[in-house]
Amino acid sequence: MRLESPYAIEMLHITKRFPGIIANDDITLQLKKGEIHALLGENGAGKSTLMSVLFGLYQAEEGTIKKDGKEVQIKDPNDANDLGIGMVHQHFKLVECFTVLDNIILGVEPTRKGFLQKKEAREKVLALSEKYGLQVNPDALIEDISVGMQQRTEILKMLYRDNEILIFDEPTAVLTPQEIEELMQIMKNLAAEGKSILFISHKLAEIMAVADRCTVLRKGKYIGTVNTKDVTMERLSAMMVGRNVNFHVEKKPSVPGDVILEVKDLSVASKVHKNDAVRNVSFKVRAGEIVCIAGIDGNGQTELVYGLTGLEPAKTGQIFMNGNDITHASIRTRSVDGMSHIPEDRHKHGLVLDYPLEYNMILQRYFEPEFTDKAGFLKRKPIREYSDRLIEQYDVRSGQGSITAARAMSGGNQQKAIIAREIDKNPDLLIAVQPTRGLDVGAIEFVHSQLVAQRDAGKAVLLVSLELDEVMDVPDRILVMYEGEIVGELDPKKTTQEELGLYMAGAKRDEVKA
Amino acid sequence: MKKNILKNNAVQSLIASLLCIVLGLLIGYIVLLFINPTGAGDAILAVIKNFFNYSRANLQTKNFGNTLVKTAPLLMCALSVLFAYKVGLFNIGAAGQYVIGACASIYAALAWGWSWLPCLLFAVFAGAALGAVVGFLKSYLNVNEVISGIMLNWIGLYLTNMLLTTVKEATSPYTFHIADANPSAILPSLGLGKLFSGNGYVSLAIPLSILLAVAIAVILDRTKFGYELKATGNNKNAAKYCGMAERRNIILTLVISGALAGLGGALLYLTDYEQWQCTTSSVPSMGFNGIAATFLGGLNPIGTIFSSYFIQHITSGGAYVDKTMYSSQISDLISAIIIYLCGFVLFIKYAINAGIARHEERQSKRIAAAEKGGEK
Ligand SMILES: Nc1ncnc2c1ncn2[C@@H]1O[C@H](COP(=O)(O)OP(=O)(O)OP(=O)(O)O)[C@@H](O)[C@H]1O
Ligand SMILES: [Mg+2]
After folding, report:
1. Which has the closest alpha carbon to B186: B69, B283, B24, B51?
2. Which among B223, B245, B357 has CB closest to A376?
């Protein structure tokens, strides 16, 4: 007689190769029923790949998958779905021009005699959303809603399909602290109901808070599985990176110099509502300082950056860089005159995914004499050398180096490539929007030290962050944005997270004059 | 090893293209079987053989020359479609730009007595102008290039009919023979005609169009301009983010695309191989066949040289189908079926990849099973 297996899913000795790299090398992962199991590893360690194998997006070359102790074949996501496996991807997979409801029921639409029964579907979705506290507006278009709501849509998609095994690939990377809090609670509720959850995150605190066990990968290899109760965050990060990581940013006091960026009464229109997204904002950033725009997502930070970089026109007000009025300057002019921009959305703005890495590395500089000759031909050798240097210097990992298609790189390494490109441009002003989103602790440490190094080299750095730790740790000054306005200026050395929270929630405000 | 070759993109394109051709011929054959089973085999052979239908060698080369004469304009239309496609634009207006190019060259040759080079340049200019209209509408008013392209095809066609009526024969709907009326406008043969049993229509057009295909390949692959265009085509937002002039690039692309198609028109009519029929009531298929040639050529400029030739070969071959057994439209029908199938290249490529994945999986299972057996 066979005992019932304690495991919902077992992935045994999985090996998956890509050109030039073994993404998963003999990895074993066992997911107990009703547990939350975290998957931890550096950027490019193979986490997304392993989950994609489980979800049927990739076929492993070796290894077996068992569900409830029985071996199963998962050839495509439909097989996965039939086995009750659902996945929220690192980069969401939603149809932008469809409504939330349409996305949720896509592929499993209830029909009667060939006609859609949307009413039934809507009721089920609303019931689920009520039960788990997943607030969504079923009739809103995906392109109009916040990332938080997009993610809730993805989760509802899994629940709507009655999935028992839920995979979350870096679900918290794009969320605000409040949303993360809610998501954690939702995950705990789901697990309590008997659903089994696989959870990828780079944030150790989250793993310690929700996960029962944690499996660590490093460079495609299995390092070990531990009970989170038995370990510390330091131990986890050491397992993952292979060394101790410094969580605190080391920096000398800043020595502010000339004003590099000056913003006067800037307003930027909103795409979604009638009110301006940015309202009469004024501030200065000097050489040799890091200024952080803090705030809850959706309070105008995105539009402020669009206005500064020229992606959207300024409605009123003025922007000066190095004393020159750049309010109406083109994006290219701003860039050439010394502005670098690490964009919020790496897939939308930051990369040409079908270009090889080397072409992405020169995206801001391809027209310079270093890379293009007088006749307009690209200089292939200097491009390759430049790209190889950045890859080396910024530890950008990929299967085939410079010729890897950006699409075939792990999310964190895509981000590192952008950071390398923008910092190496040697700007006077570096605008970094959530630069550490999706990076592992080692890479975050590296990026933070790079930002500080830029500051110490006399650059002005404008950091936009949703991450409270980052906001408290990295900048020299904090400006809090609330509903399109700057409502407070804080000194990170003197303020507390609680005070910052009050400003961010709009409960407290000062008259800030630049 | 074998698997690696199959995974190569260029090889896959080639296989997919060849499969499309075979499939097209097969379906064409089946259709012929339905219409009249006795002659089907001969008919499809006649299409494939094209100029080989002649038994005399000199007639063969001469008619081979004729096929090439019409390949040159087709190649230009294919390049026009391809160039725009790389930027993410679908230039269905190539058909009209081709017509306007033909019109400009014929009119300049007959009404103004210009010699061939200015006539060519005028055609290029006319095609470019039409492309520019589409480009402006697209980038400033966000009018879909397919819609405005189709509209302009008709405008171009009737404009051409109207204008060329002033230089046509009194008793027929055809324009004057340029070779009689203004020999200076005929494209120089560069002595190429001799290679094709004295085919007087073979000219500069053929090497020129091949040269341009190579030039387009180089521009797209090796230059800053090509880098910008492909970036815009792949990710408009990223192109904007890094300060590429998106509007300018869209307009410029459609101008170049239009110029290529316009040149195509001139490359045919300035040989005097055909005369414009001023009662033409549908947009000539040349531009549309260019779309098929683009995809059959695997979206590669060099590939389009061969695909354009093939499509023209089939189209010309259609003329040799026995008209006593099949109605005269059959030749167009057969070549149309084959050309239509040519559009399925991307689909077949997808099928090849799916097949490889399945094969590999079985292979690895077999290996794994063998290893397990060995361990015991
Ligand atoms: N489709 C693909 N083709 C080729 N190589 C790939 C592909 N997908 C991933 N890789 C490679 O496999 C490795 C593992 O990637 P994966 O996306 O699994 O990393 P990850 O652990 O999820 O990292 P991150 O934390 O950055 O998201 C990387 O080196 C990546 O370059
Ligand atoms: Mg990943």
Report:
1. B69
2. B223
- Residue A467 structure tokens: 């991450």
Beta bridge partners of A482: A485
Return d(Cα A26, Cα A62) in angstroms, integer: 8
| Best residue in B8, B87, B241 for a mutation probing chain A (most A CBs within 10 Å) | B241
Q: Tell the CATH topology of A246-338+428-514.
A: Rossmann fold (3.40.50)
Separation in Å, CA of B322 to nearest CA in chain A: 49
Interface contact flag, B361 A341, Cβ < 8 Å = no
pLDDT digits (tens, 9 = 90+) for A411-432: 889 999 999 999 999 999 999 9
- C-beta of A295 in contact with ligand 1 (< 6 A): no
**Lookup: tokens for B172:** 């027929």
Q: What percent of chain B has pLDDT over 70?
A: 94
CA atoms of A358 and B363, how far apart (whole Å): 35
A321, β-bridge pairs:
A261, A324
**Residue numbers of B between 233 and 272 with CB closer than 8 Å to A:** 234-235, 237-245
Query: Are A331 and B222 inside 8 Å of each other by CB?
Result: no
Out of 3.40.1190.10, 3.20.20.30, 3.40.50.300, 3.40.50.1980, the CATH code matching A7-241 is: 3.40.50.300
Domain ranges of chain B: 5-369
Q: How far is CA A335 from CA A292, A332, A348, A452, in A?
A: 21, 5, 18, 21
B242/A355 touch (CB, cutoff 8 Å), yes or no: no
Tell me the longest C-alpha to C-alpha distance in chain B.
93
Q: Say what the pLDDT of residue B339 is.
A: 73
Pick the atom of ligand 1 nearest to A413's CA. 26
- The packing angle between helices A411-424 and A380-393, to 10°, is 110
Of B266, B256, B269, B262, which Cα lies nearest the Cα of B215? B256
**Which ligand 1 atom lies nearest to the CA of residue A50?**
18
Token pair in block for residue A386? 């430049």
Q: Does domain B5-369 have CATH number 2.60.120?
A: no
Identify which of A89, A402, A409, A436 to mutate to test ligand 1's pocket (most ligand atoms within 8 A of the CB): A409
Q: What is the pTM of this model?
A: 0.85
In angstroms, the CA A475 to CA A491 distance is 9
Q: Is the pLDDT of residue A407 over 60?
A: yes
CB B223 within 8 A of CB A377: yes
Is residue A61 less than 8 Å (CB to CB) from chain B? Answer: yes
Is residue A162 less than 8 Å (CB to CB) from chain B?
no
How many whole angstroms separate alpha carbon A258 and alpha carbon A322? Answer: 8
Per-residue pLDDT tens digits for B311-356: 899 888 888 887 788 877 776 777 778 777 776 777 777 788 777 7
Task: Tell me, yes or no, if A355 comes closer than 8 A to chain B by beta carbon.
Answer: yes
Is the shortest distance between the CB of A46 and ligand 1 below 6 Å?
Answer: yes
